[in-house]
Amino acid sequence: MIKQLLILFFVGITSFSTAQTKGEQALVAIETSEQANLFLKNKPSKENKIFTFNEEKHKTDLAKALFKLEIGNVKSIRTERDKTFYKILEKSSKPYYRVSYIVLDGSKYTKESINQLRTALIEKHRNGSPFSFLAKQYSMDQNANRGGDTGWFTNGDVSPDFESAIISEEHSLEDVYTFDIPEKKQYYLILQSHESKDISEIKVLKIVETAR
Questions:
Q1: Which residues make Cβ contacts (< 8 Å) with residue 71, sequence separation at least 6?
Q2: Residues 121-157, buried b or exposed e (16+ Cβ, 10 A)?
């Protein structure tokens, strides 16, 4: 009787071990982003990838669930078609910035007329015209459709000249100031619409395993 119980016990252990899918077995061995990249290189797939979730930009239920996990933790989602694994590789926090701007094209206006227009726009804004409304009317790039709002950005997301003007100089909330890049014929009027803040990010490895 005891012998039979022991046999059943070891059979159960073996079954549990072999029940682990290839995706689960791969995730156990992966601990760093370098190991994850090597795995993706050796096992190329359109669905397997590494991506970053930003707590400010990503508000889905999946993102919220992943932000609650610690580094090394795995979340799995099973459907009739496949099973998807998400492993947390890294957690970090970065400073992010956000402004609104109006840009004027120096190839179409003289510097004098640009300065006159910017002075007039500052006065309009002080008298109650929303900056977003003025940006839609006067800004000369595609971001005018968004009222000049940059959205949240961090180091390396925008051009170095623009980044330096926003990050290097200290401006108070709601300040309006000018900034020029003469060599590119770009002349800016900038509203400090938001204070900078640290935003959490997680780097996640996604592995998709087709159901059998």
A1: 88, 89, 90, 91
A2: bbebbeeeeebbebbbebbbeebbeebbbbebbbeee
d(CA 18, CA 100): 56
Q: Is 198 helix (H, G, I), strand (E, B) or coil?
A: strand
Place of tokens 């070891």: 10
Question: 94 — phi, psi (to 5°)?
Answer: -125, 150
3-class DSSP state of 183: helix
Domains of the chain, by residue range, sit at 2-91+200-210, 98-195
CA distance 175 to 154: 20
Domain covering 98-195: architecture: Roll (3.10)
- Pick from 77, 73, 103: nearest CA to 89: 73
Position 77 scores a pLDDT of 93
- CB atoms near residue 105 (< 10 Å): 14
Q: Residue 49 phi/psi, 5° resolution?
A: -165, 165
Which residues make Cβ contacts (< 8 Å) with residue 110, sequence separation at least 6?
A: none
* Burial letters 15-30, b for 16+ CB under 10 A, else e: eeeeeebebeebbeeb
Q: What is the pLDDT of residues 111-150, one digit of tens each?
A: 999 999 999 999 999 999 999 999 999 999 999 999 999 9
Q: Whose CA is closest to 94, among 171, 173, 203? A: 203
Residue segments in the chain with a per-residue pLDDT below the cut of 50: 3, 5-18
